[in-house]
Amino acid sequence: FSDRVAISSVLGLLAGYVDVICLVRYGAFAVTQTGNIIFIGSSLHAFLFGECQRGIDGQAPDALLRQGCAAVAAQQVAFSVAVLLSNLAGAYTYCALHHRYPRSTASCAAPFFALLTLAADAAGSLPDLFGGLGVPGWEVHQPSGPGHRRWHDGELTRWSVCLVAYSLGAVHFLSNTADGSRLKAPAFAATGHLQKIVKFCWNHGTLCKPLSDAQREAIGQSIGCVLMMLLGAMLGGVAMHLNPFVDADDDGDTWLLVPAAIVQFAVLKWHDAKIPPPGGWPSALVDPLAAAPQKV
Question: Do 67 and 73 contact (CB within 8 A), yes or no?
């Protein structure tokens, strides 16, 4: 496998893992924004028509239920829009960094974006801090029955997913198909890769067209991204179930984004170290240095 195929596959793994964690924990997609757009549309419908749920025997809910539904739906719209805009802001930030540091954008930004991903997990500890201090809205509730975890009212911790969306939005733009891209493949877009695989099967399986090295690498990226995204989603589900990073007081703070931040940092460094920029490496890094003149 080439470095492009390997890096695209690792990014697919990262996307699947992070989106499962964020969907279960925060109710939003940090990586793939299609789901958030669907959430926005569904919540707008509930806000405008007050149809969060049906009443008794399928009858329309009463006015009080409609009013409460609209309020909850409005909050969900604001939340989903914030996650979406955070993701786009991350992509915009990466554009600005690429304009200033075109040959080392990913490696320069790696520590910053990895720390943002970690910050979302750190925000999950805020209820322990503020709830212990008695701050309103951060109270700790005891289990209601056997096997139930303690939980918090810290709604602000939910918004910490915006940090992950910002961070992964930048990484997503790293793998776009723009002129400055080195991967030339959107590693977080499974639908596009599935379509590319179907087109590959038609062109080279049915029509038996010859396969160039570039096409072989491109289809390797598509297959790797899809399979590794599926594996990442599975790993995310297993991690949520086993909860290996649960803290001592067993209140659900998992720190499950720690491995994602580590992988994110490593793959950004790997990207700039192994994949040449458009136009190739600078000659000073490739050509051997001329022998220094000897002193007489």
Answer: no
pTM: 0.80
How far apart are the C-alpha atoms of 111 and 106, rounded to whole Å?
Answer: 9
Q: Please check whether residue 19 is in contact with residue 234, taking contact to mean a CB–CB distance below 8 angstroms.
A: no
Residues in the chain: 296
Instruction: Identify the residue with better confidence: 33 or 141.
Output: 33
Considering only 15-19, 86-90, 135-139, 196-200, which range has the smallest mean pLDDT?
Answer: 135-139
Q: How many Å apart are CA 267 and CA 19, to the nearest integer? A: 18
Separation CA 143–CA 250 (nearest Å): 11
Please list, residue by residue across 37-73, b when 16 or more beta carbons sit within 10 angstroms of its beta carbon and e when fewer do.
eebbeebeebbeebbbeeeeeeeebeeebbeebbeeb
Contact of 194 with 158, CB cutoff 8 Å: no
> Are β-strands 151-152 and 140-141 bridged in parallel, bridged antiparallel, or unpaired?
antiparallel
Taking the C-alpha atoms of residue 283 and residue 153, their distance in angstroms, rounded to an integer, is: 58
**Which pLDDT band, with edges at 50, 70 and 90, does 153 fall under?**
very low
Tokens of 266: 């490593």
| Measured distance CA(153)–CA(216) in Å, rounded | 51
